[in-house]
Amino acid sequence: MTSTINTLTEIEISERLAKALSGETEARSNNPRFPSDLFQNSPLDAAVLVPLLIKDNEWHILFTRRTSSLPEHSGQVAFPGGRSDPGDTSPEVTALREAQEEINLTPGKVNILGRLHQLRTISNYCVFPVVGRIPWPYEFHLAREEVSRIFTIQLEWLADPNNHSVQLRELPSPHSPVPVIYFDRYDGELLWGISAQITINFLNSLNLI
Predict the structure, then answer these.
(1) CATH, domain 2-30+40-205, list 2.40.170.20, 3.30.70.380, 3.40.190.10, 3.90.79.10
(2) I need a labelling partner for 72 at 20 to 30 A (CA). Which of 7, 11, 66, 115 fits?
């Protein structure tokens, strides 16, 4: 599996993402199915960048840790991203704008490889994950009011089924719990929730799990 993952080319990744998005690849994700009456309003559009990079001859994904003072998902491991602005013409525009604002990643340095299926979050966002290859090493500058840290995890580690599991998360009564993905701690960080689900969906799209 190691050699298979780390010999994937950008073209192969892009082709597999396109096939999965078109529905030709069987959906094998555990996306939470929230009750229809859990939300009182329509979801807000958002997008995140799933940043791929080559480090020490291995594919990695870059993650951020949100600052503890943010009103939503504070202190959680996340991808660069956020709510779409009225002038954003696509999820790619939103994801690249947010990545530049949060970690100073220049949009022109990102090679967009594709998208994943959108997901609805417990905070009532409709998130479009955008996958892109980024340069490494790179001089990142963090917006400290939003991001407290960046770090990377090998794709090989993320694809290992021994490193993640499904746990039930309670919802407000009278709703039943929903399944949530949790990864084992890595470098002191806990990847779970929507970011973990996006990671699993990405691995599924590449036929790595």
Answers:
(1) 3.90.79.10
(2) 115
